[in-house]
Amino acid sequence: MEKKDTKTHLINEITTAGLQTAARKLGASASKKQVRRGISKNISLIDELLRIVLIKSKDSSKRVQRNIEFVGLGVMAAHTFYRGFKKKKRLWILEGVFLTAALGGVLLATQLKGVKRQII
After folding, report:
1. d(Cα 98, Cα 39) in Å, to the nearest integer?
2. Fewer CB within 10 Å: N-end or C-end of the chain?
């Protein structure tokens, strides 16, 4: 039987290794420490946003919180892009791509959830 910490650690290692490999393939060399430092602060925000989106709740405070998190993630992605282009850092540009992809995925999940409710 595995502890939750072990599963979390394993997921983090796999995610870090995958993002490090993707960065290398796109031409940005990055150590695991750099990837963890850059992405880990954003993964918790993405996780919380996914939880809010996927939970069925008609509570208006949840919708307001979801919208605030959408805006926050969008601003973070734009700022990371800007900072990466300004300082010519490929890793920051890739981090912006990651955040944008995560935001797009969450928005897509939100839209599909709404369409599914309308069909039924």
Report:
1. 9
2. N
Cα within 13 Å of Cα(63), Cβ side: 4
Long-range pairs of 109-117 with CB within 8 A, sequence gap ≥ 24: 109/50, 109/53, 109/54, 110/53, 110/66, 113/53, 113/54
Q: For residue 57, how many C-alpha atoms fall within 13 Å in the half-sphere facing its CB?
A: 13
Enter the DSSP assignment of 55: S
113 contacts 56 by C-beta, under 8 angstroms: no
CA 79 – CA 61 distance, rounded (Å)? 27
Instruction: Pull the structure tokens for residue 84.
Output: 């990466």
Q: Tell me the pLDDT tens digit for each residue of 52-71.
A: 777 766 777 777 777 787 88
Encode pLDDT of 54-113 as tens digits.
776 677 777 777 778 788 888 888 888 898 889 888 878 888 888 888 888 888 877 776
pTM of the model: 0.68
